[in-house]
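Sample log: DNA topoisomerase (ATP-hydrolyzing).
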Amino acid sequence: MEMCYKILGEGKLVTQRELFYKLLSDSPKYFSCQRHVNQTIQDVVSLLRCTRQSLGIMASSRGALIGRLVLHEPEEEHIDCSILGPSGHAITGDLNQLSRLNLSSDARYLILVEKDAIFQRLAEDRLYNQLPCILITAKGYPDIATRFILHRLSQTFPNMPIFALVDWLSPFKCFFCERKHFLMLICILFWLFVF
């Protein structure tokens, strides 16, 4: 709690991993591994009934997106995701920044791609020019920021069908199956399996 107070006082955000290293250097006898820090964060969030973000902690994001989407950041230049390289646009872990984005698109589909290699191949082939779509990946198991931007996209474009391109019996698929409340926030999700 003391470390969170200090972080908030400085007006900064840290990732869970950064917090682990700060705590490891300050209090090595209390926090010997990342798992202990993560569990303590969860306990504090539950106890205070707040978000990690409100404590100055953000999760690292692995996600990326590319395609027929323009991101308008307040007081910043816009980002046209259709002219990026095959790695796409990295999704920030700062949920406040993601919530401030204005999104515009002429895409007809949103394609959620489990594997980064497949995402990069589709991006390199510029699939979104032949099939007007937005490609999004979490590079494996979906992180909070990628789930958040997916939710924003589904709310901003409620008539845009969402397709999930995943391995059969993928943990990615199980992620959605386990979280029905999240699925309710997404209008339509179609499964596309890769064998």
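Observation: The CA atoms of residues 3 and 130 lie 50 Å apart.
Observation: The longest strand covers residues 162-167.
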